[in-house]
Design a protein that fits this description.
single chain, mainly alpha, 105 residues
Amino acid sequence: MGGRARKTAEIIVIFLLLAAFAGGVAYTLAGRTGFASAASCDQNVAGINLAVEKWFFDTGQWPADDLGDIGADPRYFPDGMPKCPVTGQPYRLDPRTHRVIPHRH
């Protein structure tokens, strides 16, 4: 192999190693993104449950099961009612417990 061909081969090998490394990093980060989204959903549920309790103490009644009334009130959710970051689905209340029905991820 001539000098030029050898350098080209070395560059190709380096490129393939970098591509493999980048693929491994992307795979690892993709798994952690899902975990972070599920954790964010859990935080949303906790925050909504706190807002639901505050709504009850402020108004004397529980918000609607679809959370439409509390979600439209900027005093409770200035940026609007959050949706699940994993599924994109809206949150709902259990009509018996008045707690957010958790999503299955």
